[in-house]
Amino acid sequence: ARGRWGALVVGTRDLVSGMLAAAHSSAGGGDGRRGLEEAAGWCVAFAVALKRHLRGEPLALSPRGAVGPAATSSTDSYRSDATLLHGLLSERQLSRLEASSHPPEHAIAGLRVCLRTFLSPSSSEEHLKVSLSMLFNQSTDGFIGALTGCERILGTPPPLTYVGVLRSIILVWLILLPFSMVHELRWWTLVINVVV
Hints:
The chain has 196 residues and is mainly alpha-helical. 78% of the residues lie in helices and 0% in strands. It has helices at residues 2-24, 32-55, 70-86, 91-99, 103-118, 126-155, 160-185, 188-195. The longest helix has 30 residues, at 126-155.
């Protein structure tokens, strides 16, 4: 899982640095700069949506924020994600992202639309446009690969031998627990171990 998430981070950095380099050149059309800023917002939206998707948590980007059981433990995380994305994407885009059946794929689709807009036919330097198109396609394909890999890892049950070893370790720990506590707690050890 760390390798997949690391690949996602590297791919995002490559894509955003390529977009920044392209913004300083003459490769973009009239709306090039705005399109690249929006594409960077979709990169962040993809990471946030994937994180929430893998954790099985709702996206909760609207002002009503996190409600229900998830709000008790990670309200600050929901607020920071929502605040971050509200500065990068429009309310309409955020509501569509939140309402989609698969938010990470929706974010990738939004990213691809922005990149296609940037590489519009009004671009003057054809060779630069082709190399940027290859970079952008390679990066978004990497995002899809990371998404697929993370979902595959999430859906794979742990091996039975691993579960057996964990059970054995926990059993040994529980059997040895009273012996480690008897020196300090004396007779209270019995009461505490009954509770445990």
